[in-house]
Amino acid sequence: MRYAYFPGCSLSASAQDYDMSLKWVCRFLGIELQEVRDWVCCGASSAHATSHLLSVAIPAISLSHAEQSGFDQLTAPCLACLSRMKTANQQMGADQALKQKINDLLEDEYQGTVQVLHPLEVILKDVGLDSLGKGVQKRLSGLKVACYYGCVLTRPPKVCQFDNTEYPMSMDNILRSVGMETLDWAYKTECCGVSMTLTRADMVVHLAHKILRAAKEVGADVIAVCCPLCHANLDMRQNQIADRYGERFDIPVLYFTQFLGIVYGAYSRELGFHRLMVSPERALENYGIL
Amino acid sequence: MMKIELTEDTQKLSREIQSLTGENVNLCYQCRKCSIGCPAVYEMTLKPHEMMRAIQLGLEEEVFQSGTVWICLSCETCNTRCPQDINIVRVIDGLRELVMSGHVDYFNPHPEIPSMHRLFLKLVERYGRIYEMGLALILNLKMVDPFKDIDMAWPMLSRGKLKLLPHKSGGVEELRRVMSKIREIEGES
Closest by alpha carbon to A48, among A94, A83, A74? Predict the structure, then answer.
């Protein structure tokens, strides 16, 4: 299947490891990604805090570009972009007056035919759990993974229409189908607070600490994530958490695509492992990977 | 028991919110599910369910001066769980819009947060993408805390996680036209 690819600002800068590993895995699984022509930032939390019209219009620009290029499906790996684009689609679909207002602003009219999906949805839909196990080259059995989904992959359900809202399992099921062991835990969808990362770092450190501690309590060796913003908080703030709370975790936080890449035989360098703050070396040393 | 008079004056804010967002806060019956699930509630002087009540009562000053609207993380937990299906995040966005557009002007205990939003959108309008390092640096200077998170700068740079120069999107001209048209439309209303 062919998808319009909306990398978003993070994957073009601080989260290149997600971009690299996602592209590797999609190539391996036969999913074709083509970057949206002249895409622009989704506006994230700043647009919807400022003006409702702006919060729908900004993502609609990139959606219209994807539609013009002939795509009816788009994938966005960042949860902020995903949520803004799904929300724009849902609101324009439910409110014809709003859709008209937006179309008066855009260069090319947007009909609303582009379905927005997270890569987890794409993999489940196009490859399916039964087929994912076929290409496995390396076994990571014994490694205990806590899958962290973040805030807006499943919330609000009306907009997201994906997975169980309060207790999602899509990432767990994908990783289990390639032979990995994932854990039950209570913080799968607890927000990491990333919208405050530049203004209230203290809140972010507090929330990330709670998530990391919950993962540690159930015995996680590593955490798997599906959003560059969750990743930034959980991976990069561990030193600050240790300074503030006197608790050092050193839990590696990897994108689910990095785990898939490893089991499918990619080199760690191709998956951007060298960009991680908390090195996964110790957690993975018994598996002959790094 | 306290008697509540619902006059034109006390209903002004809830009506304003309803016309701006389509959400009817009068449906709230104080079950507190929103506040129980809120990850940021520990930082709020007015908890989400208290804010809904304050809007019902038209306590505009309390609502805005609490700063709760800026502490909300927009994580959508409250929306998802509200038994009355009130989109609480949309209500909060409506309140934020009133501040950002200058319709209300109260003391804000967290001025750095709306400042961040303004700067974010300014950079998006200039480049069409967010320039992470520029945003962090300018914001630190504005907050008079130039070395905030400086401990993360070198580890990020050495791992190629920070782009020193901004990247301009090919769609920036269209984006600028859209943003300026919206300013025109909203300036008129």
Answer: A83
Distance CA B143, CA A127 (A): 48
Predicted local distance difference test score (pLDDT) of residue B189: 60
**Closest-CA residue of chain A to B74:** A45
Tell me what ipTM this predicted complex has. 0.94
User: Given 3-state DSSP classes, what are the helix, strand and coil percentages for chain A, each rounded to the nearest 5?
Assistant: 55, 10, 35
Peptide linkage before A228 cis (omega within 30 of 0):
no
Chosen from B36, B44, B88, B117 to mutate, greatest number of chain A CBs within 10 A:
B117
Same domain flag for A6 and A101:
yes
Task: Identify all chain B residues contacting A106, using CB atoms and an 8 Å cutoff.
Answer: 174, 178
In a domain, A126, yes or no: no
Query: Average pLDDT in the A184-199 region?
Result: 95
Q: With b meaning 16 or more CB within 10 Å and e meaning fewer, what string describes B24-45?
A: bbbebeeeebbbebbbbbebbe
Exposure of B2 by Cβ count < 10 A (0-12 exposed, 13-18 middle, 19+ buried)? exposed
Q: Is A223 helix (H, G, I), strand (E, B) or coil?
A: strand
Q: What is the mean pLDDT of chain B?
A: 92
Give the pLDDT of residue B82: 98
Interface of B with A in 152-171 (CB under 8 A): 152, 155-156, 159-163, 167, 169-171
Query: Which CATH superfamily hosts domain B12-100?
Result: Alpha-helical ferredoxin (1.10.1060.10)
Determine the pLDDT at residue A290: 62
Calpha distance B166→A182 (Å, rounded): 39
Give dist(CA B143, CA B138) in Å, integer: 9
Question: d(Cα A88, Cα A32) in Å, to the nearest integer?
Answer: 24
Q: What is the pLDDT of residues B45-69, one digit of tens each?
A: 999 999 999 999 999 999 999 999 9
